Amino acid sequence: MTIPKPTCKLCNKPVSDKSSIKCNFCSQVSHYKCNYLTSVDSHLIKNFNENWQCLHCSRNMFPFVELHDYKFNIATGNKIDYTANNDKLSFKTPPNLSELYNQFNNLSSNNEDSDDLVNCKYYNIEEMSNLKDSINNNSLSLFHLNISSLNKHIDNLEHLLTTSNVNFDVIGISETRITDSSSASKLKLNDYSQEFCPTESNAGGTAIYVKNSRPYKPRHDLNIHKPHHLESTFIELINPKKTNVIIGCIYRHPNMELNEFNEDYLNVLLHKISKENKSVFLLGDFNVDLLKYDKHNATNEFLDSLSSSFFLPTILLPTRNVGSSRTLIDNIFSNYVSHEIISGNICASISDHLPQFCLIPNIYANSIPSKSNVYERNWSDFNKENFILDFFAADWTTALNVGYEDVNYSFECFLKMFNVLLDKYAPFKKVTKQQIKFKSKPWITTALQKSIEIKNVFFTKYIKSKHQNIKDIFHDKYKRYRNLLSTLLKQSKKNYYNDYFNINISNIKNTWKGISSIISNSNNTLNAPSCLSYNNSFITNPQEVANVFNNYFCSIAKNVHSQIKFSFRDFQFYLGNAFEKTFFTTPTDNLEVSDIIATLSINKSQGPNGIPTRILLMLKHDIAPILADLFNISFSSGVFPSILKIAKVIPVHKKHSRLDCNNYRPISILSNLDKILEKLMYNRLYRFLEDNELIYPLQFGFRKSYSTSLALLSLTENIKQEIDDGKFGCGIFIDFQKAFDTVDHNILINKLQHYGIRGIANDWFKSYLTDRKQFVSINGFNSDLEFNNCGVPQGSILGPLLFLIYINDLHNSIKFCKTHHFADDTNLLYFNKSAKQLNKHVNYDLKHIVNWLNANKICLNVSKTELVVFKPLKKSLDHDLCIKLNGKRLYPTSSVKYLGVRIDSNLNWKEHLNATAIKLNKANAILSKVRHYVNESTLKSIYYAIFESHFNYASIVWAQKMNSSNRLFLLHKKAIRTINFANWNSHTDPLFYSSKILKFSDKILVENCCFISKALTHVLPPLFHDWFTFASSTHCHSLRSADLGILKVPSFNTMTHGRFSFKINAIYSWNSLQNQFKDFIFCNINPNKLKTILTNYFLNNSQ
Questions:
Q1: Burial (CB count <10 Å: 0-12, 13-18, 19+), residue 525
Q2: Which of the 8 DSSP states describes residue 1085?
Q3: Would you tell me how many other CB atoms lie within 10 Å of the CB of residue 830?
Q4: For a 10 Å CB count at each end of the chain, is N or C smaller?
Q5: pTM of the predicted model, to two decimals?
Q6: pLDDT tens digits for 890-935?
Q7: Residue 628's closest CA among 409, 398, 400, 392?
């Protein structure tokens, strides 16, 4: 007689001894998998737990079993009365639940192979890694964690995300404990955008991180918030060709009444959401223990509200374990129901809450992968010696001989030969995602990664162990191992950054990159969207996205030019007489080329059709003769190689929506060979222009010995002098729209001809500018090539200098005003004792400058052009000013930001001082964090980079009248205490001395004297050479008495704008210090040596 096999009480399918487990309450067997157990759990229960009960018997203590029972009976075709099984269940399942499931999931009621409605369990890191095959571009992956301070645990979070090998689309974080948006902006995750809701208390706060490949928009209208009680963050994922997905992260503080939350916030939110008919996921820590639903009426109402809107939980297991207490207070609720959903808690110990995740397949429309394969050259097996031997064996004369007949073919031949050599010794290889990930945390070594895995194993065993004795053993092991590992990670991170800053401290860009990686936990990769909103539709094909960007960037000039009015005057009207001398291009040589190669940064991209910079640096002396011959062929023929006129453009997001092309700026990357060739021509052209004084004297941009500080000083001293003389004045700060991108090539070529660049040299520049091409690269996909025949090439060496030539004659169009330029930042300045005449003359000049702009095809942005009126403090305007630009009236503003400094109408600098104080506060915050990762000398260097850079910027302009009680002085003292790890109230004089850092008041005195020294010795531009004269008529260098080194103090009328102008205050500083030094005369000392002498003098006095 055959004995029938026992069947599982839960699924009614046959069971075996190996796959089954017996309930100690009902004495029936069931599959351990039907009870959401693993084989390890089953083994432990059988051997150690005498009171285990199956899922069926757990009905009275676990609220969601009935859903599964109901689901099982649908699968077997035996429908049961859902509510009859448990009278304590407060929320009623809708009668048409089966119909809804069938509608959403396309399941028939007799589908016996269907899985459980929610597949929820505990996962360790290894199991999470195995889930990556379940994720594709059509699925949505969600992650949530109550992190108990994002700032404290963000490193652990990022490492968990890296090691789990799951690229979650959306990461919800509750209890961030972030209290302001500035702190939130620093806490970035690599390859993610972020939305935050700060908290007003010591707890709370929410954040949502969205993977950059998933386009989204914020949904501030859905946020529910009550100060000190409730925070939330909502976003909407754009899902082209399907319904968009709304995701919210909510944190309800434990002190908030649950009834209030249900009635006044949750129900209102669910009502709003129900109107949109979209898939919604609510992540968060609700502080509602669902395991105790039958003992708490407010919890019942919470579940009633959610279930009545058809929101079901995806997390069914406890999420917080403290001692013997287990609660289910974190969850991911959704109105999107699918039997294919995978969810669970991750066994990771970032906080006392477990992370939750949810994988939803097929929620996105089918799409092309957002990233193509990325390839890099493999340098691991590069044989330097053999490569050099092959380089010398190659016949490079073939390329050079062809060049005399065809420059383009010569360059193509050279690059082809060189790339064959590179492919032999450094072939391309595919870069894996894991390799990209671990680059963001370079201090986590392979050994530390292994240690983290061991720690996670201990924690997983602690979580999953059922027997208390075993649980205690693993908990003790876990805590001891975790504390040791935490110390090792901190030390490894400190060592890494200490070495990093020691290597890169002289490179300000890399220094800031290192600082940013500490304070923002991001490697600042440039990410563009995989989706764009274009012509009222969404584009998801990455190739099309790249093409749309390229079309947009190439059409900028055309769109701007369409706004320019027709000019009846030709641009040549303003040029005047042509310069008689002619510019000739002299040949280059090996030494000049190798010197330029030596200046290339190994960290910069080689660009399209370039050579790896590491190879150029390695071969600089050997490859220089070949490149010199190629470049000379280009110079002599007047042809710029076409292969070097191709730009790779990367769109970089500025602000606002990532779906709009207008919110991106192009970053152009050119070949490094192009940059060498351009630098050769730049050196020749710049020398010609400066030697012949062809550049407008008040152009401060892109010129040696000129700077923004000098531009500001020249401008503000002019203003102070005129106000001190009792005059009224106008400053018009003009904004040009996309000036560099809209330069007309024909006009530029003619202007080059006007200034003496003629013949073959002019042909070379014409060849350089015409038929330039570009492509946009996004996520490994490249757009089609497009011509860009307008503007000076972005990212080029010659571009800025060519732009200076283009606007060099602007001042010829006006009669009364003085123009100051820093590249395209232009202002007009005019003063008159009569406000009526001031009004008349300014309007006259503005009319003519508009004519010049139209003739030169530069578009004026009137809306961003600002007017500031200057006048003596005790004098009123005797005429109403009506200043018009291009037919629109300009209304005076109290201040304007020009070259990074706030210039107000009274020149009292209050607005600028406040703005600087904010920057210094931020710098102090950075120093307080960075100081734990670097040594003393490195910290001091970082202090100079991020604190004194703000403190010193243009300080000679705005700091001439400051006292020691000023807010900036106090912040300076705070910075000195921070870098010396001193107490908040420590006396700072000894700290300044030991750090060899000047007090700000002393620094201003030193800078004033050094400026005068540079002006007297003609180190500064000619504009400043006659600013200072000696009181004695005797020549400075023949003086033997300190009294004879005193400078003449010009007369002044007012204290505010006269006595405390830079010129006069600097002279007082000079004379005062000169009188204290009897042994030498300042003007006889080199400016740099003078700075050292004065610095040591003040440091010694601070002891």
A1: exposed
A2: S
A3: 22
A4: N
A5: 0.73
A6: 999 999 999 999 999 999 899 999 899 888 988 888 888 788 778 8
A7: 400
Least confident of 579-588, 907-916, 1036-1045: 1036-1045
Distance CA 720, CA 168 (A): 58
pLDDT band at 106 (very low <50, low <70, confident <90, very high): very low
Rounded to an integer, what is the distance from CA 1032 to the centroid of its chain?
56
Residue at token pair 């807010």: 967
Full 3-state SS string of 436-481: HHHCCCCCCCHHHHHHHHHHHHHHHHHHHCCCHHHHHHHHHHHHHH
Which two three-digit tokens encode residue 782? Answer: 């490249």
What's the CA gap between 790 and 1038, in Å, rounded?
A: 57
Cα 279 to Cα 123, 126, 145, 656, 1046: the distances in Å are 26, 30, 21, 24, 80
Q: How many CB atoms lie within 10 A of CB 125?
A: 20
- Quick check: 376 and 428 in contact, CB under 8 A? yes
Angle at 87 between CA 82 and CA 89, to 5 degrees: 70
Question: What is the rounded distance in angstroms from the CA atom of residue 430 to the CA atom of residue 154?
Answer: 30
pLDDT tens digits, one per residue of 172-209: 999 999 988 767 777 888 888 899 999 999 899 999 99
Helix pair 508-520, 936-943: axis angle to 10 deg: 100
Positive or negative, the Cα torsion across 921, 926, 928, 934? negative
| Contact (Cβ atoms closer than 8 angstroms) between residue 140 and residue 280 | no
> 949 is written with which tokens?
């850079």
3-state secondary structure 767-832: HHHCCCEEEEEECCEECCCEECCCCCCCCCCCHHHHHHHHCCCHHHHCCCCEEEEECCEEEEEEEE
Q: Is 206 helix (H, G, I), strand (E, B) or coil?
A: strand
Residues in the chain: 1103
Tokens of 1100: 């010694």
The beta-carbon contacts of 78-85 under 8 Å, at least 24 apart in sequence, are: 85/59
CA distance 682 to 631: 13
